[in-house]
Every structure is written in structure tokens, then in C-alpha cells.
Amino acid sequence: MSKVICAISGGVDSAVAALLLKRRGLNVVGVFMRNWDLEDEVGQCSVQEDATYATRVCRALDIPFYEVNLVKEYWTNVFMPMVDQYEMGNTPNPDILCNQLVKFSAFHNKCSSMFGNVVIATGHYARTTLNDRVLTAKVPHTAEQRLLKAVDPFKDQTFFLHKVDRTALLRSYFPLGGIFKSKVKEIAAASEISFVLKRKESAGICFIGRREFSNFIKNYISPKPGQFICYETGNVIGNHDGYFSYTVGQRSLIGGLRISYAVLHRNSKDGNVLVVPGLNHPALYRKSLVSGPAHWIAGEPALLREGKPLNCYFRFCHRNSLVPCTVHQLENERLLIILQHPLRAMTVGQDAVLYTEDECLGGAQIDDVGPSIQELKMKFGRIQKNELGTLVS
After folding, report:
1. CATH of domain 3-198
2. Does domain 283-388 have CATH number 2.60.40.10?
3. Given 6, 45, 58, 98, the catalytic residue
4. Where is this protein localized, as stated in its record (predicted)?
5. Which of 375, 372, 362, 359 is nearest to 335 (CA)?
6. Which of 6, 45, 58, 206 is catalytic?
7. Please, are residues 242 and 287 in contact by the beta-carbon 8 Å criterion?
8. Helices (H) and strands (E) in the chain — how many of each?
9. Active-site residue flag, 230
10. 317 catalytic, yes or no?
11. Whole-model pTM?
């Protein structure tokens, strides 16, 4: 009987993943990752509750339960780099780093040392081209493995998996990739693990959970009060406690003002936050960006290797719709990405993730963004909306 390690988080998705594996007659072992140290805790955290539910799930399914401690790896490779990026005024995505360096690297290595070269399953909503073959046959190291979108478009998590190493994907299995979330809940409700449905869906920073972010991050970054500066007038219109509490595009209610403002830029040097009136100001919209070197899951696309442009799809936020784009290779493996229409609130530090219709090709961190629609208007005069595509908020 094939042995499969299933990462158990204490939530419904990983619980149903383990249940489906067991129903296939596989030798399933549940392993819980403890990645956040309660001694570092300064607020409400669900890590101990997660561990308790993970234990209950394994007991209900009658599968072995293990716990691995990856606190050091998470702190060093994910959390502190995230803090550093916020302190620099950038907008990182810790969940992407967590998958790349903890869940599909450190966790895989730990499981290999404990159980040998086994397949590792998770409750992510994603698919791969090898699919069930990783369970039934020894996959050669040179095998091609591609990352495909989940059938449930609202739960698809390939955005967060785009930096996972191909060799890790060769021994990864996603039992929920071909199932809709509603079906997952139905399966749980009719099984011995129905108790997990009483828990709230996981949210917030990976492994840290639900937080009021501005208060949480202040425990790790020294406060740097600054001023809100209006982009249109250059006037000071308010004060704030720290630029790192704000993200580009965020709505900012500034005391004493009748209208809402949106964050346009954060200056880590003087601590000031540049804001624009309204939530759909043209200064928030951009149509191009430059990224650093890309991580290509199944290798660099042939067109780019040949020095030709690649037409594909782009997103920088996992909930955004895919936008057609053209990708050009620059020097030092950097990419120039030109979008079919402008997008709101793209900023440095976010991830540019690229797709075909069904496949996640990979992605790269945004190093710079092109001129805003407002800047183009100021330089070239009034630009008609239909010349730029539909502005979407």
C-alpha cells in the first residue's frame, strides 16, 4: 500500500484531502506544521487551536498523527523578509514565500527525513499534469510537471503556488484540484470529520491567521508617524501613525474630510503617504510593469527563449480576473509586461503571475511599474478611455 503524507492544518480542506486519500485505500499519515511560536505571540492566534483540530481529524480518520516544528524556517525565510519589505514601503505576499520556502521546501525535506521519499498531499485547490500518476508510479526526476488551475475558479490557489520548485511539484498531490468547494463541504458534512465545518475559513497571513494588520505589524516595525499628502495639490491633509500600515489602493478615511482618499504611494524615507481623492483616480491605474527574473514552473516559454514576445494572461492579486498581456524579455532575465488594459493599484513588491488559459506558467516579483494613466494624460494631453481599454476597479 502506497504511503502518502497529508499536511493537516485543522481546517476543512486538508481534512477532506486526507479523507479522500484514505478512501482510495492509501496509507495516509497526517502531519501538522507548527510554524508560529506562541512565545512570539502578541495578540490572538489560532495555532494551538489548529493543532488541536488537526489531532482530532487524524483521530477521526484513524490515521497516524505527527507534528513538525518549522518555526525557525518560517521566521527566517518568510516572516522577517515580509517585515523588511513593508519597512521599505513595498507590498510583499508572504503566502507565496511560505509555499515556496516552507510548505513545499522545508516541510518536504522534514518529511523526507522522517518517512523517506514519499508523496506529499495538501488541501490546496490546484491541479498538475501528472495528477494521479504521482500516487501510482515512481516519477522520474526528469519528468515534466505543469501546474494547472483548479476546476473551481473562485478557490484556485495557483497564484500562491507559482514559485514552488518543479522538483517539489513532482512529489506533490492536490486531491481537491478537481472538486468545487461546495462539494468539499458536502463530503465533510457527511463524514466523520464534520466537526471541522464549525471552524471559520482560514484567512490572513499564512500560519498567523486573522489579525488587524496595522496593529499587528506595529509590534515588529518601529513607529514612524508621517503626513498624508494630497497628490493633486501637494498639501498636507492629515497625519498617520506609520506608512507601513497602508497599501497602495487602500481607502483612507482622513479625519475631518468629507471625501474618501486612496493611497497612491508610501515614502519609507520621510514616512509620508501620498493619497488621491476618490477610489478610482487615474493615478492609480497603470498598464505596464518591469519584473525581476521569473520562476518558470516547466521552463522558460520557447517564444521568450527565441527572443520573441509572449502573449499570455496576467494577474497580481489572486482574486483578480486574468488580463491579456504581452511579455518581453529584457536584459538580466527581467521582464517587461504590457497589459491589454490598465489595472488599479499595482505596486513594487507584488508578484506578476502569468498564465495560459488553463496553466500557471510561473511569475516574478514586480520591480517597477510604468507610468500611470494620470501621468500619460499630463504628458500627452487628454487620452480617450477607449484608447486605453476599460478601466476596472
Report:
1. 3.40.50.620
2. no
3. 98
4. Mitochondrion
5. 362
6. 206
7. no
8. 14, 19
9. no
10. no
11. 0.91
